[in-house]
Amino acid sequence: MDRILVTGGAGFIGSNFVHHVVANTDAHVTVLDKLTYAATQESLDGLPADRVELVVGDIAEPEVVEPLVAGVDAVVHYAAESHNDNSLEDPGPFIRTNIVGSFTLLEAARKHDKRFHHVSTDEVYGDLELDDPKRFTEDTPYNPSSPYSASKAGSDHLVRAWVRSFGVRATISNCSNNYGPWQHIEKFIPRQITEVIDGRRPRVYGDGLNVRDWIHTEDHSSAVLAILERGQIGETYLIGADGEKNNLEVVQAILRHFGRSADDIEFVRDRAGHDRRYAIESGKLRHQLDWQPQYQDFDAGLQATIDWYVANEAWWRPHKDAVEASYAAKGQ
Ligand code: NAD
Ligand code: DAU
């Protein structure tokens, strides 16, 4: 593949993928990104200008999307509204970007017969009980809880239909919770790191026992590239790194890092419809595509992420007050 279009390539995970592609292939990357509040253009700084170009535009606009898709060999689709809490306040942008945007890209991929990889989430499967020995597999029935996860489930179904009905050469990946540098401070880990930097207490929803299956964003990128290069058309691959932790364990690790007491936590109003537990069985990806995560020590990865937020305060500081004001208005 000589030319790849990466939608959402100025976001947290998409920008990591762009760096990963530049470091590990010879491909030219065109990033298509609307530069919403969640984007950080500087996350693409330092990349060679002859390998990466940024086009600012909306994936839901066919006149923007079509010529770009026509000019590449493959589309890797990350662009989305990605935050559950925002989807509970205002679902409209989630429907437009995640469903209409994905539809618009699929139509262009169909018209120009392009390879398409759709980046999705484990949240499409709903949640598991804390004591359930099962984990999500590629055969788990869809059961999304929030407007965000329902919109991602909708986009997955569109991809499956475009494969079956129109022969679009697509694959899907459903990944668990990512952490690492450049994640917006509205999300759990960066919010708590920056709260503690500011001398405040981490804000934990409900009883804090909800479990997420953490994976470093670099491992997500290597998995997506493996699927793009070696995945079987029409197949879904779950991406995970065996990183189950409950939210209390994560904030306690952050508190420890800063020498704060492990019970220095503020319990706040729970998220409506809050999924209890996510857990990924990623054997298909590991066995069929020979993929392995590299960041299996969550504590070490978290320490490095904390260090990154300490060192990059100039990036997140301008957004901190607005993010906290918005949470405070909801009692969170
Ligand atoms: P993010 O919110 O950090 O970035 C999303 C990017 O998409 C931003 O750069 C934004 O400007 C862009 N965008 C939004 N609407 C757009 C539009 N209409 N047109 C063009 N660009 C648009 O999100 P993220 O956390 O990096 O997630 C990226 C993808 O990975 C999403 O599809 C998400 O569902 C999926 N995913 C995320 C996680 C996670 O833990 N964050 C886990 C599994 C899957
Ligand atoms: O599982 C993959 C999904 O992971 C992705 O599809 C989403 O794009 C991504 O945002 C993430 O969704 P979550 O809702 O799991 O992530 P979030 O960072 O919002 O919350 C993680 C957990 O922490 C969840 O149980 C809610 C809780 N939480 C969150 C915030 C922001 C808190 O307890 N306090 C907080 O302040």
State the shape: globular
Strand percentage lies at: 15-25%
Q: Per CATH, what is the topology of the domain at 3-178 and 216-239?
A: Rossmann fold
- Can you identify the CATH class of the domain at 3-178 and 216-239? Alpha Beta
Average pLDDT, rounded to a whole number, is 98
The distinct ligands, each listed once, are: nicotinamide-adenine-dinucleotide, 2'deoxy-thymidine-5'-diphospho-alpha-D-glucose
What would you call the structural class? alpha/beta
Task: Summarize the SSE layout with pairings.
Blueprint: E1 3-7, H1 12-24, E2 28-33, E3 52-56, H2 62-70, E4 74-77, H3 84-89, H4 92-112, E5 115-121, H5 147-166, E6 170-175, E7 178-179, H6 188-197, E8 203-205, E9 211-213, E10 215-216, H7 217-230, E11 236-239, E12 244-246, H8 247-257, E13 266-268, H9 283-289, H10 298-311, H11 313-329
Parallel strand pairs: 1-2, 1-4, 2-3, 4-5, 5-6, 6-11, 7-10, 8-13
Antiparallel strand pairs: 9-12
The site of 2'deoxy-thymidine-5'-diphospho-alpha-D-glucose (DAU) has 19 residues, from helix 6 and strand 8.
